[in-house]
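SUBJECT: protein chain
CONTENTS: sequence, structure tokens:
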Amino acid sequence: MRADIMRTTIVTTLAIAALLASAAAMAARPAIDELKSRVVLDDYEANVLFGYNIVMETNKYAARYAGNGLNCTSCHLKGGTQPDGFPLNVAGVYPKWRSKNGVRNGIELRIRDCFLYSLNGVMPPPEAPEVQAVAAYIHYLSEGEVIGKPPAGWGVPTLPDTGADPNPPRGATVYARSCTPCHGKDGRGTAAAPPLWGPDSYNAGAGLNNVQRAAGFIWANMPVGNERSLTHQEALDVAAFLHLQLRPFDPREGGLKKLAERVYHRISTWMGKAER
């Protein structure tokens, strides 16, 4: 009996110590605003801040690898801190297998894939400063998380079966009502929100070009300021509508096809500016 009490006491003490250690680690992590205000940063802190800047303004800080009008935070909401909005506090679950590329991915490869697909750009080399900086920022956000266990609110919700198939025509109605004010009638984006289709949006190989995943993201996070106001069926319908819109090719379809697409896009952009 006494031995059981002692074991329970030891386990409880260790659990409390672990919680306190986790809380201490979180408290020790400087806020991004604090890092911005510091005159001198060590190498890790400088990389964290550079990674944060890339996530928030990708086309400014990682322009040589980005290829569209999106920033990382267009999908990883609030700089990767929004639960159910593809948060970036996920370093502890990597490396992990991905069926998309058929290999076990470290966090750097996962970042490089985002440049290729979601940003419709060029895959950076693993040693690129931009990749290393975003990895540092992800590790920074992941401090205090349990290694090997997905954090709460990671990814996006998986919506339940509604009993009806996603319906693009109904989705067009939902889009016109709820999405147009921010993303525009033509889906090309506005100053308030990123493009959802067209040459400046994510390409056909991106994770959001999946009806179920896009529906979970839309339902949990859109419209901004009125999240979770759509029904599950409405989110599925508008995701199906977006899935049918024209967007850049999947780079896995061939380099020549992507090259022709980029040339066409540049010529079209130049001619559009000339007409104005």
In short: The beta strands are 96-98, 103-105. DSSP finds twelve helices and two strands in the chain. The mean pLDDT is 89.
